[in-house]
């Protein structure tokens, strides 16, 4: 049986992720549609801004980290997020460029996959 604390942490992680998704989609849309930045640069910028925001919320609310080494904890979180970004961009490439699925629908699917990756990697490594 899955640990209830783990489920609660995952739900909190998803709530934080939803706020990050708003930052991610908002930034991506603004850069891609209004400023006409390359879609991968726009996507990457949105993703990194969301990851930074998510770190703060996850540190204090989801995982209630008391680690005094905030810088190394943040770097670990960001490195995991960068791997997640690579997964995100790969999914975008496969679904949008190759399969011609709508960019934002592809992005939504990518976020779902990366959420699972990010949660378990941060649970096991960053906030252990």
Basic shape: globular
Rounded to the nearest angstrom, the radius of gyration is: 15 Å
Number of domains: 1
Distance from first to last alpha carbon: 20 Å
* Count of DSSP strands: 0
For the sheet with most strands, the description reads: none
SSE ordering: HHHH
Helix content: over 70%
Give the mean pLDDT: 94
Residue windows where pLDDT falls under 50 for at least 5 positions = none
Count of helical regions: 4
**Which class best fits the helix and strand makeup?**
mainly alpha
Percent of sequence in beta strands: under 5%
Topology:
Blueprint: H1 4-34, H2 39-62, H3 70-98, H4 103-126
Helix pairs in contact: 1-2, 2-3, 3-4
What's a concise summary of this model?
This protein is mainly α and 128 residues long.
Molecular structure report:
- This protein is an all-alpha fold.
- The chain contains four helices and no strands.
- It has one domain.
- Helix content is 84%, strand content 0%.
- The protein is globular, with a radius of gyration of 15 Å.
- The mean pLDDT is 94.
């Amino acid at each position: 049986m899955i640990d209830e604390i783990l489920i609660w942490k995952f739900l909190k992680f998803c709530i934080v992720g939803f706020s990050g998704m708003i930052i991610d989609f908002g930034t991506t849309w603004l850069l891609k549609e209004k400023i006409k930045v390359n879609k991968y640069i726009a996507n990457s910028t949105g993703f990194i801004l969301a990851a930074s925001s998510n770190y703060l919320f996850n540190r204090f609310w989801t995982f209630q980290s008391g680690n005094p080494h905030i810088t190394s904890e943040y770097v670990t979180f960001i490195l995991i997020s960068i791997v997640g970004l690579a997964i995100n961009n790969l999914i975008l490439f496969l679904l949008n460029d190759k399969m011609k699925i709508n960019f934002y629908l592809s992005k939504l699917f990518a976020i779902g996959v990366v959420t699972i990756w990010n949660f378990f990697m941060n649970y096991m490594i960053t906030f252990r």
